[in-house]
Every structure is written in C-alpha cells, then in structure tokens.
UniProtKB/TrEMBL annotation:
It comes from Aphis gossypii (Cotton aphid). Residues 66-252 form the CRAL-TRIO domain. SUPFAM superfamilies: CRAL/TRIO domain, CRAL/TRIO N-terminal domain. It comes from the Eukaryota. It holds the Pfam family CRAL_TRIO. GO terms for molecular function: phosphatidylinositol bisphosphate binding. This is CRAL-TRIO domain-containing protein. One of its GO terms (cellular component) is membrane. InterPro entries: CRAL-TRIO_dom, CRAL-TRIO_dom_sf, CRAL/TRIO_N_dom_sf.
Length: 301
C-alpha cells in the first residue's frame, strides 16, 4: 500500500500546528526516550528512532506525555490481550470479519494532513458479525499507520449502508470501554472527525444518545451525513472512493491494498513487544486531582 506523503500544502498545515517542532530538534528527545525505556524493567528495550519519533509528534513533542503513552501502549497489550492476540494476516478472525465488514485507509491526506480510515458494513448472507473482530481490525490498521508515519490526525468514515441494529448492539459496554481506552491511552492519535454515511433510521438516535457521554469537542466532530454532498465539506472528492461520489478509484482496491500491506507486519506481530507486568515497579499511592489517569479525555485537539 502506498501512502502519499505530505505535499507542500500539507507541510505548511503541519507547521501551523502550535506544537510543531523541527525534526532536527527531536533527536535529543528520542535519545531520552531510548534511555528511559532501557531503564524500565517491565518495558521492552525499543531503539527504533523512526517509530519513537512518530509517538513524539503524536504527543505534540511533549516528552512526558510520550512516555505515558508508550507505557500504556505496551502494558495494555497484556491487560487486554483479547484485543491484540493472533494479529497476523492469516488469523481466522480476519477471514470471518471480512465477510461482514471491510476497512481501508485512503492514500491521500486531507488538506489538514489527516488520514482517513474507512470502515464499512457489506451485504452478506453467510457472515456473522463479530464486534471484537471489528475492533481488532481497526487497531491493527492504526498500528500499521503508526509504524510508518506520524499520524497528525485521523478521520473515521463509517459507512452503515448494510449495518443492522444487532451489529451496533453487540458492542458491549466493556468492549466499547476497552476500545476507547486503547485509542485514548495507548496511541498518540488525535481524532479529527467521525463521519457516518448511509445511515439507517435508527442511527441518529443512537449517536445522539452516545454524544451525551462524550467531550464537547468530539461531539462537535461527529457528523451524520444524509447525502454525500455534506461529506465533501470535510473530505475532498478527489481523495474519496468512487462509491462515495469521489474520483480516487474503487474502494475495493483500497481495502485489498491495506489487507496486502499489513502482511508486512506479520513478523512484528509474531514477536510483538509488550510489557512484563511482573517486573513493573510498584508506584507509591498518592492523591492526584489532575484527572490525567482513568478519566483522561480523548486527545482530539
């Protein structure tokens, strides 16, 4: 899969972000991260400077916040193993999941330098929807992106044309909470938008209900599109698949591309670095009222 790199317009948009830092100036921070990881008995000794740079950029070049997300990235794979086990491309759950839903990443960036991740339900007669598999598939796609480039922002495009009410109801509170925790605490992502297209009648009420439990910023970035015309206000037509009135080509090609591309990570998944919680130092208890832990909100700036 070919991800189109930022062009001059994208580079300017990135530089306009208030946390932008010249890549040359991040080398000392990367050295500090490598040194810090080497001294954590429960964390893997990671020395991949490119990958660490992506985390730094995602955490707005804040060294302490980057350490926190790296800690969570490795520990959460032990604490919630069901979302990260058996992640190679030949896994049985993937073969079952693609009978009901498909995923892709658009090659082009939005003018704001955001990636677009499409998740869609497909018409099927013999497939069985598995909410856990859909969550794992999205996390696998996000991992693919993070290993290859800084993700300045991620836009989710959810196509519900063939979505059944039972699909959405199968996302249990525990699964939903765990998925949100994985994205919130254990990735350096910033969610720039969530767009629903081809919504069934029941979707509006469900989305409006869930909005009540979300931060105001993300509430304002959730949009239900009754037609594609309003979608073009957020995602240019020239980067959208033909199926959405765009001119970028068939969505099936993008879906096949990401399926093929993620095979590159099979060996990495077979030896996936994770924490050894038996070696984690015991943290002293303290009264902390800054709300940066369990109740930390999504980073969607």
């Amino acid at each position: 899969m070919v991800l189109t790199p930022p062009n001059q317009q994208h580079q300017q948009a990135i530089k306009n972000l208030y946390f932008y830092k010249d890549p040359k100036d991040t080398e000392e921070d990367i050295d500090a991260l490598i040194d810090w990881l080497s001294k954590q008995p429960h964390l893997p000794n990671i020395t991949d400077r490119v990958w660490l740079r992506h985390f730094l950029i995602g955490r707005k070049n804040n060294l302490q916040r980057t350490k926190k997300v790296l800690e969570s990235y490795f520990t959460i794979r032990v604490e919630i193993p069901e979302l990260f086990d058996d992640m190679t491309s030949d896994a049985a759950w993937i073969q079952k999941a693609v009978k009901v839903g498909k995923m892709s990443v658009l090659p082009k960036l939005t003018p704001e330098a955001n990636r677009v991740h499409i998740i869609r339900s497909i018409e099927n007669n013999d497939g069985e929807f598995d909410a856990m598999a859909m969550c794992k598939g999205s996390l696998k796609t996000i991992d693919y992106l993070m290993r290859r480039e800084p993700v300045y922002g991620l836009v989710f495009l959810l196509d519900l044309k063939h979505c059944q009410l039972s699909y959405l109801l199968s996302f249990t509170p525990t699964l939903t909470k765990n998925l949100m925790r994985c994205i919130d605490e254990a990735t350096p992502l910033r969610v720039r938008g969530v767009h629903y297209v081809n919504p069934p009648k029941f979707v509006s009420r469900l989305v409006n209900f869930f909005k009540l439990f979300m931060p105001s910023k993300i509430q304002n970035r959730i949009v239900i599109h009754e037609t594609y015309d309003t979608l073009y206000e957020h995602i240019p037509r020239d980067m959208l698949p033909d199926e959405y009135g765009g001119t970028a080509g068939s969505i099936e090609k993008f879906e096949n591309d990401i399926m093929e591309a993620t095979k590159e990570d099979d060996e990495w998944y077979r030896n996936m670095p994770k924490a050894d919680l038996s070696k984690r130092p015991i943290q002293p208890k303290k009264l902390d009222m800054d709300m940066t832990g369990t109740f930390k909100k999504l980073d969607i700036d």
